[in-house]
Amino acid sequence: MVGRPRETFKMETNFEGLIQLLARHLYADPDVFVRELIQNAHDSIILRQSESEDVSGRIEIEVHPKDGMLIFRDNGIGMDEDDIKKFLSVIGSTGTGSLGRKLQAEGREAAFELIGQFGIGMLSAFVVATKVVVRTRKSAAAGALAWHNSGSTTCELYDDDKPGVGTEVILHVGPEHGYLVDSRRITETVIRYCDFIRFPINVDGKGPVNAMDAPWHRDVWHSPSEKLEAYRQYLGRRYHNETPLTVIPIDIEGECRARGALYISDRNLPDLDTTGVVDIFVRRMFVRADDVDLLPPWAKFVRGLVDSPDLLPTAARDNVQRTHSTFAFLREQLGRLIVEHLADLARNERNTFVHINLWHHYHLKGMALVHDDFFAQVADLLLFETNRNLMSLEEYLTKNAPRPETGNKAPIYYFAFAGAAAQFYRLADATGWCVINAGAEFDEALLEKYSMYNAGRVWLQRLDATDDPAIFQRLSREEEESFRQLEANAEWALRRAGVTNIDVRMRRFAPPELPAVIILTPESEAELKLRDIVIQPWFRSQLEDVANEALERSRTRPVYLQLNATNPLVRELALLNREPVAQELTYAMYTSAVLYSRNLLTHDNAEAIHRQFLRLCGRVMGQHNDLAGLRDTVERERREALALRESHAALVARRPPHVLLFMITPFSEEYAVLEQAVRRVFEREPYFFEVMLARDHTYKPGLLDNVREHMGRAHGFIAEISDLNPNVMLELGATMFTGDDRPIFSLRHQNARQEVPSDLKEKLYIPYGSPSDGVEELAAAIRRAVERDGQSSHEGIGRLVAARSRRHLSATLLRSLDVRLTDAEVSALRRICTTVEDLLTQDQAALAERTGLRPYKVNAICEMIRELADGA
């Protein structure tokens, strides 16, 4: 039961506590008093200018660190006693608000420049001050007044001698806030909150420290480029840690007016939880930094600054009222500006648009995927990587011919893993298709969404999970049969290598240089994605066992190895059976396809590739060792050959200018007559050779060394091989081992019984009767074998004749002359004259004197020799 009240009384308040409570809890930042006092000064100047347009406003701040005092001074309208009592001394009463409403009713422009609304700005001074003194003189007032308050219900009003119109606020800052009494800090605070206040603000006589106007406060520009450059420079100074990729000027009219600038930053943004942010100004006064709600939720890559006279600040002036219709209107208009700007860049500044796509791919496409309204605006403009550079879907749809089997829809060919780019770019280039690399985040989902939104005109085809006959052509039945065994052998080889989930298929595709391609089934692709999820640290342990079980089952799902029937290596491989080299080549083609499509490089594949790599390393090392051994052998033989060549060259240099035949016979008197017959044939005309046996001259003391020296000096060889005498065959073999083209002649009598070695049958074979035959008979047999019609008929002898530069003057030749010569005379002549040319160029008298021969003999010998030489 309520009944009549027992007593009625008023509630009481602790006024001092209320002031301190409001001051300390309404304003979170102690610096905010600077903003509030400058705002009051600004509004005071605006009100004075509404009465007198010739007033130039100014605001001054003095900092007195030693006294712990700050002074704010303006030349605004000032206050009289009535104003002080009605507005300054009453919390919540605002002269600015009252006069503003009056001016607005009168249609005065100044009403829209006033900032203050709530009449509580002076409270901010008590956040830091223990005492506040306001000295003020109103225009047309008789004198000045001073209002004193120490944060209590008691305030004092004094007459004052302030000289000019305006107001001066003196703060006696408490010791706990003494750090605020600092010129640099005050200057930074002015710039932060009041940079756009359009009256100059000086600090300690320096300034103005505020910009007063930003580029968007300027109405006239010489050109759009000048305007954009001014915006860019300002944003670069204000947000000095970032460089704008593009600038979006704000000039919005309507329900909520706004100016300012947005920009797309060059800073990479880490994830989709990042938000776009703007700094909010209301009527040029800073209100809030890094606001996350004024931009549309998809504009995560946008930064900027918005100044609106129509947004409604909160009482603390550190935020704006978000439920008011002006806030929603402005957010919608900002979204429209961003989309229109991106569309303009896509069409008119492609390089900038490409740069933005590359820098903010994640957010542009992520937001298009999440927000349908943004998708509808930008889907055709977003850039995708293709085998023909970056291009928008709008441009891409013009690149490929429509597919009749799809109702002539425009095809979108893509592959889903970036690692497969090299493989599918080659396939697409060879086929003449333009293909999209949809391996980046959101790309595949965006293409699927795009095809769903445009189902009537677009057909989506994923190349790395399809066996499209347009790119992987089928073989004829006959060709299939010819490659059937290769398919079976390849699967067998891969299973032996541990690859159990592979199906090998023969196809024909371009380019022919590409031997193999791996194609996924839809199930295997999903399991690849599941594998990537399982390894993420956030994956819940409860689901891990289920996922791992699914992945284990995936090992049995097939992937397809498409072998290229036009590839030369594949065609050669088809001719091999299950030989080791065929197994290695098969696995090499598989691993090349895996490496060419890096997304397939699973743990199992990596292990198998590793094993093959080690096998190949072992084979390479074995071949290296074999090659090293061969190199050593070749080098040793090269050195030996070089030594032989050098030795041979030295021997060749020692060969006489006339032809020397080295004769090889058994050590037996049985062949003495044969030796004479050989000399009679070759040492006389027409050959003029020298025939020498090892016993004729000793060049070196050792038997073998002496024989080797004889062989080296000889131009040709003649050997008696009837009995295949071991010494003869040894020396003959040594002559053949030299490897040069010096001719070798073999003598063999008719009674010889042993078969002649096949390599000697190819040489000049000279048969004769018997070693016991007479010299003339043996000589005639030799001539019959080597001559025809008195001329040499053997190529080897012909070469010797052609190669001689001198003709040997042998004892056999001298004794055949019609001049009787003693052995001593023959020896005397041969000591002086080795060759026919030596003899014929000698002075005959001198030769006679030197040899002791009578001059007539010398003359006769020379004439006979000349006649023989001329007739040869």
TrEMBL record:
One of its GO terms (molecular function) is ATP binding. It comes from the Bacteria. Gene3D superfamilies: 3.30.230.80, Histidine kinase-like ATPase, C-terminal domain. Keywords: ATP-binding, Chaperone, Nucleotide-binding. Pfam families: HATPase_c_3, HSP90. Belongs to the heat shock protein 90 family. This is Molecular chaperone HSP90 family-like protein. The lineage of its organism: Bacteria, Bacillati, Actinomycetota, Actinomycetes, Streptosporangiales.
